[in-house]
Inverse folding.
RNA sequence: GGACAGGUGGCCGAGCGGUUGAAGGCGCACGCCUGGAACGCGUGUAUACCCGAAAGGGUAUCGAGGGUUCGAAUCCCUCUCUGUCCGCCA
């Protein structure tokens, strides 16, 4: 949500930010609406003031048993009875129009975000690790998984249709091992607080992190008003909604391993084979709540926490900063981490870390009290995958595949796999 | 699902339809006191929005939304959340 005061004060800067996102100028239209609202509000408050004044005097007159004076005042104020509700209604209508308008506008990009229309303008900031040379033709993860009889798309399709999978045996365990490894690193080394949050949330939570109102089609909802979270960002970030924190409590760092549900509307035909793009997948999420001053540094830190997972797993990756045209709705700046997939001979997104500034905080009404000075300020919120577990599993399969169809388990995961060092066909020994 | 009991400021806790933004306490801030502290004393301590250069003024907010009234924290209705007990249940 945008700050109407900022738009009033710096309309040109606001429009310029929109232009960088490829959007047309909106400040004039918004400010016209704002002026209507302020005019109506002024009028309403004048009438209310008048009424309050008269009511007070009526009270005094009655206390003094001056019934005639009371009657006179009551008649005087009677006409406000019609006007006040009508004006109230008008104020509310303007307010709603303004909110509707503002809540559908994406966050403005940070100054150091590269301009561009789409992902082709993204800029690689670093590349870590080198793809291991394979002396055979690398297979894609689904071929590896199906050959091992541990990844079953057909069984999943029979009960749930496309974009679902069943993992079994050591692959099911690998998923759990990856999540545990990630959680342990984030909690024990990086100081994130592990959470088990709700997977079903109400409208206002989805509105707070800005999945609503604009991205309703991409969500799964229940028949009785809940939404399945598309990411734990929603539940983790909304923990601080409608609250006023002490500056000393910041930064707050949360992590959670949760399932994520996405309808993938608009992704028809994309990544139809394999488990790159599922309706349901699991992810270890990172969320930070900080002061505005600290959020840029926290953003860098968060990216490095996510990267550390890949480093320890020995998976090659590159980190890119998204261009204005490729960023998500709430972000003012986003880094994507892309992991190397030999089977696809490509880097594919495995994490996305965004600094949302105070954009979500305004929607959630999440504030803090600065240690020095009076009043309250909106917190900054950041979120990032650390990492998408399903895609990490894919990356392990493809990068650690052997010519004989087996998969070596990365050293750091072996303690989580009961000491196992290789995934092979069951009963194949 | 059934039956009760409740939601008041950072926290606890009063509150008769009229000068209550809201007693009292705690906490916090500043000042006095002190060698320094505690104690004590004094003063001050909500949020959002509107008008204003500022000083300041105004409006709204006692879970939410409606209603009654000249006037609602207080009365009525609906919803919601929390607690307790019963039932059911992983």
């Amino acid at each position: 949500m945008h700050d109407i005061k900022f738009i009033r004060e710096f309309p040109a800067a606001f429009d310029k930010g929109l232009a960088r996102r490829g959007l047309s100028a909106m400040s004039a239209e918004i400010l016209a609406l704002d002026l209507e609202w302020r005019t109506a509000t002024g009028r309403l408050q004048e009438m209310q003031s008048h009424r309050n004044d008269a009511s007070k005097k009526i009270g005094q007159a009655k206390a003094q048993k001056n019934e005639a004076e009371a009657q006179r005042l009551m008649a005087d104020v009677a006409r406000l009875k019609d006007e006040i509700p009508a004006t109230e209604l008008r104020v509310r209508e303007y307010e709603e129009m303004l909110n509707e308008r503002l809540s559908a506008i994406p966050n403005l990009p940070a100054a150091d975000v590269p301009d561009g229309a789409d992902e082709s303008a993204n800029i690689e900031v670093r590349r870590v690790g080198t793809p291991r040379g394979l002396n055979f033709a690398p297979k894609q993860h689904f071929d590896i998984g199906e050959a091992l009889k541990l990844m079953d798309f057909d069984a999943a399709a029979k009960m749930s249709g496309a974009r679902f999978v069943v993992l079994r045996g050591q692959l099911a365990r690998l998923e759990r091992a990856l999540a545990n490894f990630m959680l342990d690193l984030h909690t024990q080394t990086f100081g994130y607080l592990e959470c088990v949050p709700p997977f079903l949330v109400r409208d206002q939570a989805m509105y707070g992190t800005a999945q609503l109102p604009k991205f309703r089609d991409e969500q799964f909802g229940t028949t009785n008003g809940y939404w399945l979270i598309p990411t734990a960002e929603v539940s983790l970030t909304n923990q601080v909604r409608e609250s006023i924190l002490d500056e000393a409590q910041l930064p707050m760092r949360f992590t959670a391993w949760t399932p994520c549900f996405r309808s993938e509307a608009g992704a028809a035909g994309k990544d139809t084979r394999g488990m790159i793009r599922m309706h349901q997948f699991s992810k270890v999420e990172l969320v930070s709540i900080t002061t505005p001053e600290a959020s840029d540094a926290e953003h860098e830190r968060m990216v490095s926490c996510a990267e550390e997972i890949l480093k320890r797993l020995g998976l090659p990756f590159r980190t890119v900063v998204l261009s204005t045209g490729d960023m998500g709705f709430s972000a003012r700046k986003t880094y994507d981490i892309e992991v190397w997939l030999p089977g696809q001979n490509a880097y594919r997104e495995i994490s996305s870390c965004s600094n949302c500034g105070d954009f979500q905080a305004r929607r959630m009404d999440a504030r803090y009290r600065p240690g020095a000075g009076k009043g309250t300020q909106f917190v900054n919120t950041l979120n990032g995958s650390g990492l998408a577990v399903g895609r990490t599993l894919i990356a392990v399969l493809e990068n650690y595949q052997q010519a004989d169809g087996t998969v070596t388990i990365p050293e750091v995961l072996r303690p989580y796999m009961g000491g196992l060092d290789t995934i092979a066909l069951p009963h194949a020994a």
